[in-house]
Amino acid sequence: MIPKHLTRLSMLVLLPVVCFAQQQQEPTRVLFDNVRIFDGKSDRLSGPVHVLVEGNRIARISKTPIILPAVTSMTVISGRGATLMPGLIDVHVHLTFGAMTMAQLMNPKLTGKDVDSIAGIQARNMLLRGFTSVRDVGGPVFGLKAGVDGGKFTGPRIWPSGATISQTAGHGDLRMPHERSRRYFGRWSRAEEMEATFIADGRDEVLTATRENLRKGASQIKVMAGGGTSSAYDPVDVTQYTLDEMRAAVEAAEDWGTYVTVHAYTTRAVRRAIEAGVKCIEHGQLLDEATLRLMAAKGIWLSSQNLVAETPDMDPLRLRKRKPVIEGQARLWPLAKKLGVKMAWGTDFLFEPWLNMEQNEYILKLKPWFTPAEILKMVTYDNAQLLALSGLRSPYEGKLGVVEEGALADLLLINGDPLAQLDLITKPEKNFLVIMKDGKLYKRADN
């Protein structure tokens, strides 16, 4: 039950539910009969095929009908030539920060249970938009993830970072004006108490913050390496963390077999992060060509977004700080593509829960620089390769982002051909006939 004082905005984003796995006994086998496949990598659909899911894996893909013994329990979904494709993946979400406004998050009555409940609504809606996996790159998400994995909540697979790691006066220093430094005055800020961020200065504190997140189950570590647009005290142009501090986070993460990704826009901040050994850059809209070439040569991922210049009720300070980032992104995407940088896509919605309804539409903002096949590949196969960078710290075993035998059964059945008409993915309530995650049907409207 969500307290009345927190429901107004969060409840605006509810979506209708067609079918939930928790409400029925799941079949052990599901047959998709007469479908065409977008496999996550190809630039064209397959011919008509039949796809058998057993448990949570794709067991068989056959050009001829699949017939099992009559005693076998099986659900048959008549595809009628619809497109079967991998579930969508968003690699830059904040399930908590994106579920509430800043005013809601700062409400002194807000509890951890409230946070999980409100974010749980968004997680359910996200899955029903076809997003079967997400990477949460900062915020209190471990409780929500445990709830989704355990069946308390419905939502996508979550790769959690946990609390962001930030220097004092960094992008993750979310203290209110009256809150003073923990080091000097001995009191945690509210954001730290909520496990939204760790304000960590010096090598020792960075090591502790990194290890604390790993202890809780982080699949990767998020470090703030430069200024941001949604924070009050750090200009976009500033570089954050010394090389030694950044290396501390990288070393601790690598000791656990995973990696550090950093929030950074500028060339100076990104080059320092690269020297420290980070494997992924979030944003990067102000990068120069030489740095992008360096990233391509070293195989470092660029996880970027297509932000809009203004949204309703955006704070004037945030609006001003965002301006150079918006101007830079139209140059970033085509240049990174030309130079062969590994690219991933995400949304990065913060404190504006109404934006979550536009998650699918934001994919189409890539159209000026990529073909429909390239876009679908990025939001399925490519994004899955970035998730796999977590190695043994990945919370789920198996291959994602593809439709092939042996892969995990995270699948969408789409009424039409998204390679020919990419806009189909912007109306999941109408065009997504089936949404399957881990072999379970969360929506079925094929008959």
Automatic annotation (TrEMBL):
Keywords: Hydrolase, Signal. Residues 83-440 form the Amidohydrolase-related domain. One of its GO terms (molecular function) is hydrolase activity, acting on carbon-nitrogen (but not peptide) bonds. Pfam families: Amidohydro_1. Residues 1-21 form the signal peptide. CDD domains: Met_dep_hydrolase_A. InterPro entries: Amidohydro-rel, Metal-dep_hydrolase_composite, Metal_Hydrolase, Metallo-dep_Hydrolase, OTAase-like. This is Hydrolase. It comes from Spirosoma montaniterrae.
